[in-house]
Design brief:
globular, Peptide Deformylase, five-stranded antiparallel β-sheet, alpha+beta
Amino acid sequence: MILPIYAYGQAVLRKEAVDIGPDYPNLKELIDNMWETMYHAEGIGLAAPQIGLSIRLFLIDTTLLDRDDEEENKEQNKEQKGIKQAFINAEVIEENGKEWAYEEGCLSIPDVRGDVDRPETVTLRYMDENFEEHVQTFTGMNARVIQHEYDHIDGVLFIEHLKPIKKRLVKRKLEHIRKGKIDVDYKMKFAINK
């Protein structure tokens, strides 16, 4: 089932999310619905706060980037494959490597994009869908998408990482999103009804 994505301005997007246990109600169905919602909105990542749930759950599918960049970056793709994975109760153990800028966007903040500097590697401790614990290091685009989604479960939006001048430039757009004065091709739930 496709769920509405919570738009900029919704309080749940600014809350630090809580851990869940294997007994969380209808978890498999929730994860399936999140995948369906993300693909419908043409995203590569989605965190539970973006669908109104303040829990430490997010998923990413960077294999979609492999397909987009196949011809452009064949060599890079050999070194690093995209991943499709759900992360539960994730905890960053370490971020390191050189910071690099890349233009990011967010399904909760449509039509706003901007360069964000992030470290090139991140090591996470997390549970998979079967609540088996993993400690794993991710690099490159996988690390970036994980860091973006991880920010969501900490109540942080990518716009907080933008340079001050860019923040001023997008201020009006953010207010329009908060008020629902934007057209998107997927269901959204706005802080203020249109």
